[in-house]
Amino acid sequence: MTFDIISAVPDLLRSPFEHSIMQRAQDKGLVEINVIDLRNYGIGKHRQIDDYQYGGGAGMVMMVEPLDNCIEELKAKFNYDEIIFLTPDGNNFNQKMANRLSLLKRVMIILGHYKGIDQRIRDQHVTMELSIGDYVLSGGELPAAVLVDSITRLIPGVLGDGTSALSDSHQDNLLAPPVYTRPENYKGMSVPPILLSGNDAKIDQWRMDKSVEKTKAIRPDLLEEDEE
Fold first, then answer.
1. Beta bridge partners of 37
2. Contact by Cβ (8 Å): 63, 50
3. Whose CA is closest to 32, among 69, 64, 4?
4. Is 162 part of any domain?
5. How far is CA 66 from CA 48, 72, 87, 162, 221, in A?
6. Which of 61, 108, 190, 198 supports an S-S bond with 83, CB 3.0-4.6 Å?
7. Under DSSP, is residue 160 helix (H, G, I), strand (E, B) or coil?
8. Model-level pTM?
9. CATH number, domain with residue 219
10. Would 101 be classed as within a structural domain?
């Protein structure tokens, strides 16, 4: 899968994609991540990419021309399954969306900054608008790292155990059950005996029961969604 990410501050994305699972996924050739510097398409000798908004108001807006030129150049070279704009007023990103997006071949991700991007880019090019939560950040770089990481780990071959992602929280609208590792006893706290029994069927049932119990206590809304 290929991610083409348009950013006004590309250096902010360097670390998240150059370590751990993300780096290994790229080394294996399972994922390609290209970060495009929007400044290369800026206007004039200062490579301007933002300007004051029409109608007045606080905050600068990313200009239509640099973004349009960048997007059109990429679209002329590649076919995109989705062109995503990360914005606080987009649809809330969730695990179901990550599952669906992980099946795609190539996506473009547009990152906002300042007060946002010129609406004409959203009208002309964007096919999906996503938010990682009901709050505002300084730019789209951190949300992009979240989005790409959550999708990449679902791609077959990325994780060492291919079934690991299937037991994560929010798969099947349930939170993940408690997990334990060695030592068996620590400061008077013991691992539940069922996990030491070797009985796979009973362990699976225990984990399911704990997932349901935890979801009811912390996120009952997820169970309500499942009933709809």
1. 7
2. yes
3. 4
4. no
5. 8, 10, 19, 41, 42
6. 108
7. coil
8. 0.89
9. 1.10.1270.20
10. yes
